[in-house]
Amino acid sequence: MDQSLVEGVLIAALFHDLGMVYSTREDHGTLGSECCKRWFRETGSVAPEHFEEILRAIEMHDRKDEQIYKSFQPETPPEILGILSVADDLEALGTIGIYRYAEIYLMRGIPLEELGTRILENVHTRFEKLSDGCRLCEGLVEKFRKEYDELCRFFDQYKLQLLTVSELDAVSSGPLGVINYIHRQGLDKTGLDGADSEVKDYFRKLEYELDQARL
Question: How many domains in the chain?
């Protein structure tokens, strides 16, 4: 791959969700693109090759339509937007994906009663488009299918647990307990003393996977 394209992907990846500091909604891509533009302007850094493509990728990365995956066709050279969008999709799966989805949807004010259904609808559509658009990367898609299945199982169990309890925000066990701890504490695990083993196991696995992602 062309080194300037690699540089472009790295810059876009660095800035793509920075707009969430200001908004967790669909406009965070536009805000992230503005942050990137402002950083290069204010630091006096020389804008890299493909700068307009980088800015467009940051702005558009969360708009998951079929066109984004066109750069994964044999006759089409890869684009920064396509690579960034696929990477963004894959990071939204598995244990880390459970946390990311929960955090973002809770910040958007989605009630606990709707959370599981809304997340499953989004991830089903997202993974379907990813699988269909990335036929050249079947090995990669299959590798992450287990993480997709893990996230789906978690929120399927979450929805079932909702049917068995009344005071949803008081639950400290099972998938609902995990979501409540994410809502109250984020990544801070100091208050897990009252949690059941399933909740503690989730946060131990999350900590491990985040450590691995940093390597």
Answer: 2
